[in-house]
């Protein structure tokens, strides 16, 4: 415990003492004005200042190109004589997927100005004593407590992307065949593209 003791002799105009503490500390002082002479003016000013600022941020920037392609077909069966001709191509499937998740912030507030153990608002009030001063003396104690807590969090996610998928089938050929049966079959073609973007998050404990 820090102790401040001031004895101000008669004839002095005023004595001012100021103490300032930053966040995370506690301030406790005994403030005493006593044994001063007749007609003296005695003043003590004590300021307890606690400030705490937390700034946290994240930024995610993505520039990407994603593509997928599949093709089938392009078979030929030409100039066959006699017998059956069968041309069959399989299926074509293409899928392109892109997932972007922004950065996240998780902060534990070191200020904790609502919890006494942290010191912010938890310092016991100092004791003040004014006694045994002379007649017509003016004695004053001014005690000021100020607490400030500021938390700033931000998250930014920026995405520039080109996502594409292409699938082709067909272009089978069966020409100039003589006799028999000619059969040409093409499979199915499917394509899909997906872009998923999840922005960042902020969490304050």
Properties at a glance:
mainly beta, rod-shaped, 2 domains, 205 residues
In short:
The chain is an all-beta fold and 205 residues long. The protein has no helices and eleven strands.
If you had to describe this structure to a student in words, what would you say it looks like?
This protein has 205 residues and is mainly β. It folds into two domains: 2-56 and 109-153, no CATH class; 60-102 and 158-198, no CATH class. Helix content is 0%, strand content 54%. The protein contains no helices and eleven strands. It has strands at 2-6, 29-34, 41-71, 85-88, 92-101, 105-107, 128-131, 138-168, 182-185, 189-198, 202-204. The strands form five sheets. It has a three-stranded parallel β-sheet, with no helix packed on it. Strands 3-8 form a two-stranded parallel sheet. A two-stranded parallel ribbon has the order 4-9. The chain is rod-shaped and about 135 Å long. The relative contact order is 0.32. Mean pLDDT is 78; it is low at 6-29 and 115-119.
SSE arrangement, N to C: EEEEEEEEEEE
Number of strands: 11
Helical segment tally? 0
Shape: rod-shaped
State the distance separating the first and last CA atoms.
Answer: 31 Å
Domain unit count: 2
- What strand line-up does the widest sheet have? 1-2-7
Question: What is the beta-strand fraction?
Answer: over 45%
Query: Average pLDDT across residues?
Result: 78
Helix content range? under 10%
Q: What class do helices, strands and sheet pairing give? A: mainly beta
Rg, nearest Å: 42 Å
Q: What are the low-pLDDT stretches, counting only 5+ consecutive residues below 50? A: 6-29, 115-119
- Summarize the main sheet: 3 strands, parallel
